[in-house]
Amino acid sequence: MAKELDGFNFEQRHGKSRVRVARVWRSKQGGRHFIVEWNVNISLLSNCVAAYVSDDNSDIVATDTMKNTVYVKAKECSEQISAEEFAILLGKHFTSFYPQVFTAIVKVVEKPWERVSVNGQPHEHGFKLGSEKHTAEAIVQKSGILQLTSGIEGLALLKTTQSGFEGFIRDKYTALPETRERMLATEVTASWRYSYDSVFSIPQKPLYFNDQYLNVKNVLAETFFGPPEGGVYSASVQSTLFQMAKSVLSRFTDISSIQLKMPNIHFLPVNISSKDNGNIVKFNDDVFLPTDEPHGSIEASLSRFWSKM
What we know:
Largest sheet: 8 strands, antiparallel
Shape: globular
Distance between the termini: 19 Å
Number of helices: 5
Mean pLDDT: 96
Oligomer: single chain
Helix content: 10-25%
Number of strands: 16
Radius of gyration: 24 Å
Order of helices and strands: EEEEHHHEEEEEEHHEEEEEE
Strand content: 35-45%
């Protein structure tokens, strides 16, 4: 919120970034352990202008205090909770415990530890690092108003056929040939906003947002690949992105909007020839050069008409 100060508009916030915390829960029956590792970022909007203009720090919540609060609240969570719930918990604490704080923005990135199986049996306390990351951001106001966003970072998807690119603009700068047969690879970054507008309206089902995260991830992947036999044709990354976004909004009524970023990661056909030996390697949809740069950059958002995005 901007404040008029000496004839200028002044806005400020402060917080603590990259607070890393791991929490282990031990099942009372069966000896199974559960772990999360979170990277927490906190930003507080508060009435502490005096610190900027009058050398008066009496209204500042120290960022070291914010860091300590993360560990205290993690300790107080006696039962498993999701990244979304932890972000909301911290936001509620900062806006209710400190009179000066009117809005808290808390982002949590969860490291993908996955339970391992040994001899086909899930291990009680063994984990390996997965790939994509689960993200959550809660913007909590003192009144209880909530903006809740979840997401995925690093969802790598690839299919070796059923993709093409034709009919695009051709001019004197165009060298790319048209094709109905190519590989399609991307690394999806997705974020979706829930329709819950208050900390009092979120579902009370345990680990609800963890289940939703897995469900959304599955829908994104299933739409990208299509049926196990035959798949589905992709006319462009743009077309596939739209179908993925539409599938999520069609499937989950409590999601009001979704944003997808899908770089087109190229696998280039390999043809090698020489003057003396002719074709050393002749491409037949079989040998590719994987590249990660430069790559196409495609992103879009899709929302319901009533969504505030």
